[in-house]
Amino acid sequence: MRPWRRAATVLVALMLLTGFTALMLDRLDRAFPPPLDQAADVSRGVLDRNGKLLRAYTTEGGVWRLPVPLDAVDPDYIDMLIAYEDRRFRSHPGIDPVALVRAAVQLVLNGGRIVSGGSTITMQLARLIEPRGERSVIAKLRQMARALQIERRMSKDEILSLYLTLAPYGGNLEGVRAASLAWFGREPKKLTLSQSALLVALPQSPESRRPDRHQAQARLARNRVLSRMSAAGLIPESEIMRASGTKIPDRRMTMPDLAAHTADLAIRTRPDANVIALTLDGAVQERLELLATETAGRLGPRQSLAMVLADAATGEILASVGSTGHLDTGRTGAIDMTRAIRSPGSTLKPFIYGLAFEDALIAPETMIDDTPADFSGYRPRNFDRGYMGEVSIREALQFSLNVPAVRLLEAVGPQRLLSRFRRGGIQLELPPGGTPGLAIGLGGAGISLRDLVQLYSAFANNGTARMLRDGTEGTPQNLFDQPVIAADAAWRVAEILSGVTAPQGAPRIAIAYKTGTSYGYRDAWAVGFDGRHVLGVWVGRADAAPVPGLSGIETAAPLLFEAFVRSGLDRVDFPEAPRGLVARGRDSLPYALKKFRSTDKVANVSAGGTLPPQIVYPPQGARVALGSGGAGPLMPLVIKLQGGSGPYRLIANGEALPKSTRRRVLNWTPDSPGASTLTVMDAKGRAASVSVFIDAR
């Protein structure tokens, strides 16, 4: 056979052999693909509106494994990693023949001791997705085969991103993002030279180099990486020396743990989503949670708090603090009190006034009686148990007087008020079998803090409420079709509330606000707003136990003002008065608006005839906590009366106290915890009694 024919035959044979080998390898590749799907088991994360991690959750195996795209990692760290681990990463097909030959030569020259493994980043990824315990030639060949398969399926950036998600960094930390958060308390977007070098060194031997357990080994490994970078001329020597002297972290930091109640709800309601974005602003949330933690120390034993801050224009919740801390077991912090149904006290009064403005029953300077009244057996009293006589509507709302509010509610109708709340997407919770009565104006119904803030969003939207959303429910933004109150009426209410004096010691900021205290001193409320934002605050006990001295103005209002300042949000001015709205002084009001007069159904109680005494606090059957939090004596119990004629005498458990008093506020210090019967007798011999249980907690 001629030479050219032999050459052609050999060439054809080689081509056929190559094709057959490629075909067999392709079939093997298809039959035994790399288990890349297993790498999809990553930690679930909840993000804020800007993509900041609020809270993360371990995988089912208890591992922190946070996925991270390359553009979220410091590029200098990536360059250092490639230069140290696999400098030909961008050009080789998954295995690096040059590195393998170098590793083999070093193995022979060093008497069988491994100096370098020759593994590429792709081979290391193969070991991570298919871990095997043995270290052998067969295991290495398997990694090489898997590396070739991985390179066929993924781009270089995808390979690098997956490696940075799965690489071990000590303990249950996997991936550079989890490591950066745990060791440095920061995202890997911007790392120092020292931090980058430590993160490059850890995956090679994550347990023996753990910074919190093996400081010396971690420092040596980091400095070894820095020295390699210096020898390669990639980093100036001066920077290397500075980075080598930087302290190694000696403890793990906690993972981001903001908005725990909202994040947990999001995880439960969206079980198929690995990453859930909420409307919350992480920076605002963190500041308000810090305020809640600081405030916990000033609250009484077992008291908690909750806050909801919303953008009234969009309905997006910017911060939601469900308690003083979800791990605060002493205050039942695991309960999200932003969603708990509680009595709102006087916080619903602005809507009563709004309806009365809408019906042209009153004007801000209309006068109204704050005097004793009997509404078919219902006899409301003011918080301080006194009366102011004839006051203007402006004063009645600003001072949160009860009798004027009930007079107006009797005129506009409780059912109509409830129907307006339904326009704002809110259904009040009434007592079982109960019908709406006048008591709902003073807190005789149930509502959550979140729903209350939703109602108050109407004041920033010309009377129309915005449905609140935080990203857990998937509800699109929605401005309700019908207003809660007319735009003119909403503006009048907001203008009056903006003139309420800030609580003593609170920052002076331009907000309108309303406070409330529920019956029995169980809940303290404050809701404030500017031209764009609404913030609601609740303080009380999660178990609904009474708290002596608790009040909206003294407990919740200062926290409201402080939270507005701490939020860092710019204050938005209130809108101008609607066109055509005229502010009139009392002298220029029409005769019908000079004074509001109740209907015939309201009977005024004459000054000469007093009602029998009544103990309004503590209520019948109350369980009152009077413990100081330690082993000391019990605190005094504040007893508040209404009606009757002084002087009054208190009889506790059948024993009369030696002194009588004309004050309607009495103090009694029990000898011991347990059941007690309290009786108050007035000058005319009329008496009222309640049975309570004194708790030493």
From TrEMBL:
Judging by the UniProt lineage, the source's domain of life is Bacteria
Q: What are the Glycosyl transferase family domain coordinates in residue numbering?
A: 61-229
Q: Which family does it belong to?
A: In the N-terminal section; belongs to the glycosyltransferase 51 family.
Which SUPFAM superfamilies did the record assign? beta-lactamase/transpeptidase-like, Lysozyme-like
Keywords linked to the UniProt accession: Carboxypeptidase, Glycosyltransferase, Hydrolase, Multifunctional enzyme, Protease, Transferase
The name of this protein is peptidoglycan glycosyltransferase
**For the Penicillin-binding C-terminal domain, which residue ranges apply?**
609-692
PANTHER family (alphabetical): BINDING PROTEIN TRANSPEPTIDASE, PUTATIVE-RELATED (PTHR32282), PENICILLIN-BINDING PROTEIN 1C (PTHR32282:SF15)
Reaction catalysed by this enzyme: [GlcNAc-(1->4)-Mur2Ac(oyl-L-Ala-gamma-D-Glu-L-Lys-D-Ala-D-Ala)](n)-di-trans,octa-cis-undecaprenyl diphosphate + beta-D-GlcNAc-(1->4)-Mur2Ac(oyl-L-Ala-gamma-D-Glu-L-Lys-D-Ala-D-Ala)-di-trans,octa-cis-undecaprenyl diphosphate = [GlcNAc-(1->4)-Mur2Ac(oyl-L-Ala-gamma-D-Glu-L-Lys-D-Ala-D-Ala)](n+1)-di-trans,octa-cis-undecaprenyl diphosphate + di-trans,octa-cis-undecaprenyl diphosphate + H(+)
Organism for this UniProt entry: Hoeflea alexandrii
InterPro entries from the entry? Beta-lactam/transpept-like, Glyco_trans_51, Glycosyltr_51/Transpeptidase, Lysozyme-like_dom_sf, PBP_1c, PBP_C, PBP_transglycosylase, PCN-bd_Tpept
EC no.?
Answer: 2.4.99.28
Q: In which pathway does it act?
A: Cell wall biogenesis; peptidoglycan biosynthesis
- Residues forming the Penicillin-binding protein transpeptidase domain are 306-526
